Amino acid sequence: MYDAGKILAGLVIFLLLVTTPVWWSFAMGAEVRAPKLVLPEGRRACVLPTGEMKATHMELLNRWRDLAVRHGDRVMTTWDGRKVRRSLTQSCLGCHTDKDKFCDRCHDYVAVTPYCWDCHVAPRGGAS
Ligand code: HEC
Ligand code: HEC
Ligand code: HEC
User: Fold this and answer.
1) Ligand whose nearest atom lies closest to the CA of 76
2) Quick one: pLDDT at residue 126?
3) Closest atom, ligand 1, to C-alpha of 54
4) What is the mean pLDDT of residues 11-15?
5) pLDDT (tens digit, 9 = 90+) per residue, 39-86?
6) Does the beta carbon of 126 lie inside 6 Å of ligand 2?
7) Beta-carbon contacts of residue 78 (< 8 Å; ≥ 6 apart)
8) Separation of 111 CA from ligand 3 center, angstroms?
């Protein structure tokens, strides 16, 4: 009835195929690494706890924009009592001065291209 040999051979081929990405990248040495981010020196905290920033900074930025532009409400108080101006270039890039090695590195990795820089001017990163 069943041909155990053929079934086994089929299973082996199937397993090789579905695991191709794993052993291929291993064999080729093209291991996937998380991007190396350059964090601001001399600053300990972001405007929200780090985990929240990672997950929700896009929504935070939209909120900042609406509050600042539509309601003139330009200052936020962080959870630890700091006052921060709701500004993409002055605050986010004021601390994260090297956009290339922070925002862009992560966005390139996940293949998102925020259109903000069509209008907003990013300070040239690198030096500071
Ligand atoms: C007062 C300085 C400061 C401001 C303003 C600031 N950040 Fe940060 N941000 C930091 C620091 C410091 C860290 C790293 C915190 C840590 O190591 O846990 C960080 C972490 C982050 C992370 C997580 C990075 C990671 O480790 O994966 C993201 C994303 C981020 N910031 C985006 C932004 C955006 C977007 C804005 C503007 C809305 C902003 N930051 C404003 C100082 C700042
Ligand atoms: C830890 C990785 C990481 C860092 C660092 C990071 N981002 Fe992002 N960002 C993401 C991811 C992931 C998305 C896409 C989320 C999605 O598709 O829902 C995103 C999306 C965005 C978006 C929305 C884009 C869109 O088209 O929807 C904006 C705006 C943005 N990031 C701004 C920034 C700015 C400004 C910085 C630097 C101050 C920054 N991000 C740093 C990971 C990061
Ligand atoms: C079509 C041009 C344009 C684009 C694209 C654009 N903005 Fe803006 N943005 C403006 C203008 C104009 C203001 C008003 C400047 C002011 O009143 O300070 C503004 C203000 C803001 C503010 C509050 C003020 C400040 O200093 O930052 C935030 C935050 C902001 N934008 C975030 C974003 C983000 C995030 C994106 C991308 C997802 C984006 N903007 C894309 C034109 C643009």
Assistant:
1) 1
2) 47
3) 29
4) 81
5) 999 999 999 999 999 999 999 999 999 999 999 999 999 999 999 999
6) no
7) 45, 47, 48, 84
8) 22
